[in-house]
Amino acid sequence: MNNKDKPYWQERQEQKFLFSEKQVNVYYKQLEKSFEQAKKEIQQVVNEFYGKYAKENKVSFAAAQQMLNNEEIIGLKSFIKLAHENMNKYNQELNNASIRARITRYQALEKQIDIILQQLYAIEYQVKGEELLKSVYSDSYYKTWFNVDVYNGFHAEFAQVNAKTVEELINYPFNGANFSSRIWRQKDYMLQQLNDSITSMLIQGKDPRTLSKDFANKFNTRKYEAYRLLHTEGAFIAEQGTLEAYKQDGVEKYEILSTLDTKTSDICRDKDGKIYDVDKAVTGENYPPFHQFCRTTTIPYYDDMERDKRVARTDEGKNYKVPSDMKYNKWYDEYIKENPDALLSEKKWKNRFTDKKQYKNYKAVFGKDMPNNLDDFQNMKYNDIEKYNSLKTNYRKLNYYNKVISNESIITADLKEISKNTATELVGLDYRLKSKESFLRKVNFDSKNSSNLQIIDETLNKTNDIIRYTYQADYKEIISKYNNINVSLNEKGYKQTKLKNTWTVKSNPYKGINCNYKSSKGQNFEIQFHTPESFELKNGKLHELYEKWRVISDKSSDEAVNLSKQMERLSSKLKPPINIESVR
Question: How many helices (H) and strands (E) does the chain have?
Fold first, then answer.
């Protein structure tokens, strides 16, 4: 058979590439399950650690630093022995899992997590991953050889895959590091990330169930990195199999074949149709893959090759034919450049990773009010600018609100403890959080309903009362209590950033001490200090009059002036705290 035409090669080489990609995807589905299993096992050992050493629903970091007793060391050795048995036939590095005579509880927990990760990365990822790459290489090599022979006529001799060559390619530091090094680098980073989360849990005295979401996010990130590595290494190995078949079967030149659709990278667009000598092929320079997730492949080039048509794809994945000598850039100018729908599809594809992350973040904040899927979100983002800008500004506000709320429980626990230690009543706790509606109303008012993100950020940074508390004491004691509470707050790492004492301002009908504080994590919140009388007035008649006064645009009107006088009369009856002048 002597079909010397380009479509023959395009069809067969694309089929070969797609089959290699399918092999990677099938293996990755199994690897995903292994990642999920490892995540469950790690969560289990953390829960067991917590159950064993928790006191009053809490494990202190100091308790975690205590040494294991003999019985606990025996239990850890049994865990390591079982892992050795599972890993033994793979000859992987578990030798560093042996334990010293003296080891802390926390170090033992780290060791267990490390062993689970070693089994995941060594057996499920590296060993089985290398088996996959060998299969991809062989398949690419033999299929290319077969296609060349169908094209030129079959040879009497048929070279077998050289196992040593495949091993060398797997160990080749393609793109800076080899397959094994990248895997273990991922594993070490994962271990560090998990340990950091566990350390924070212990220091803050949290329940390990709070780590579930954090663990899920970290494992999802590592799973994506695994997929990216497998896809890139798989493409490299597949193209190396093709290149070796070219060499063995006497192909002297090859042509770069990029996919004619809007998903093709700028690098591969420029490479399309270029012809190179087989013996001068250099991966990443003149031979694919040229980048991560590269879909470009090659076809043999013959001087007498007949040229008729090549295949292009619509954004819906349908094929159509264009002239064989049409290179990517010419195809783009003719079919895409003046086509708004195609340009939109191209933009959506190029931005798919950042848009997917953005969609996930927005979905977490807006829930069912978000578009149903990523495609609908992208359509809105790129077609309805006004709606997208509104969504973006509201996300900025609500995301800020949610982050503030997430810090509330730790602050509340500290303030309750200070309340107990200083014998000062903490009142109005049910109202310690400003409602979402009240927060949005305030931010919109303060920012004058601006959609400028810089103005919104400035407004948010000045909003300190989303979390607010009130300490209450008799007028004879409130100032001494205030001083004691400030000392306690400082000891816990809180810093006072603002103080407003309106008891000394006669023109202000509101009477109280309002302070802003910042936690060690940078969270701003407000504490008010009141006498029982000032607190009752603030929440009662004074609040009622103030709400009427607030909505009057002309503060010099008779109505506004009359309301001001009523508020001043009410507050003038309050008994000022002793030594109030010292608070400044």
Answer: 21, 10
